[in-house]
Amino acid sequence: xxxKLKIKAHLVTWQFFNLKLDNLNxxxxxxxxxLFFMILSCSNDETQTVARFTELxxxxxxxxxxxxxxTIWDYDIGTGTNGWGNNELQFYTDxxxxxxxxxxxxxxTAKEESYEGSAYTSxxxxxxxxxxxxxxxFEARIRLPYGQGIWPAFWLLGANDNEVWPQIGEIDIMEYxxxxxxxxxxxxxxxxxxxxxxxxxSYSLENDRFDTGFHVFGIEWGPEYINFYxxxxxxxQITPADVTGEWVFDQPFYILMNVAxxxxxxxxxxxxxxxxxxxxxxxxxxYKSKGLNY
Length: 294
Ligand SMILES: [Ca+2]
Known about the structure:
Layout: H1 2-18, H2 24-41, E1 55-60, E2 74-76, H3 83-87, E3 90-92, E4 99-102, E5 105-115, E6 118-122, E7 124-126, E8 132-133, E9 136-143, E10 150-158, E11 170-175, E12 183-189, E13 199-204, E14 215-222, E15 225-230, E16 233-238, E17 253-261, E18 277-288
Parallel strand pairs: 3-6
Antiparallel strand pairs: 1-18, 2-7, 4-5, 5-6, 5-18, 7-17, 8-17, 9-14, 9-18, 10-11, 10-17, 11-12, 12-13, 14-15, 15-16
Helix pairs in contact: 1-2
């Protein structure tokens, strides 16, 4: 009897995850049903909202001081084309001034300094060619920087070299405007829905800020869904029905982490922006499904 109830609870919970979040009444109803089964089954397993992907396949806890682990992380260097497509103002380097591991934390530091023709320096790390995966849970525990014109992000890009952005697809697990320290955004970009037309949703803290403590940002990504989490809150689900073009999230993606300065998303720093600004990353972990039951 207990086992049957547990199975039912799992099924109901799974249905709950797959519902559109804007259908609040249905969600409320199912939540009550789910709680009912959870109480009956006398188990804590069903209360976890983050449980679809349980097999750890990649992790960097940033336990070794110095340069980040070169078997996981590479760097984009320079200014890209048109400021990495966004009119960003920084020059990315892999210098210890801009990126290092210290005391168990990865530090990505944006500085105001004249360097190679740019007024700012920072760093952008990526796992392209080193770690790429289709589907799974991607998460990082991060304390964000603060200030007008500061644009940190933890995100994924499609690894297909035969296509160009936005056809390759982009999943922004977390991006943030430094001038709005209570709000993060989760988004996807693809063909027909990129840049200003990206499919996006924000998540805000009520009585807290993202620059004063660490928070966990993650996605759970399977065939035809991407669930966005801030800490344990599932705040958005995106499915093929939500995008206005081809669904391109069915191929390997790689991870990026960076702190951009200026650009179309945040605007330029102003006289009140203080430097340096640092994004602290306690860990990055990636999980996959045990078996193929997404
Ligand atoms: Ca750590």
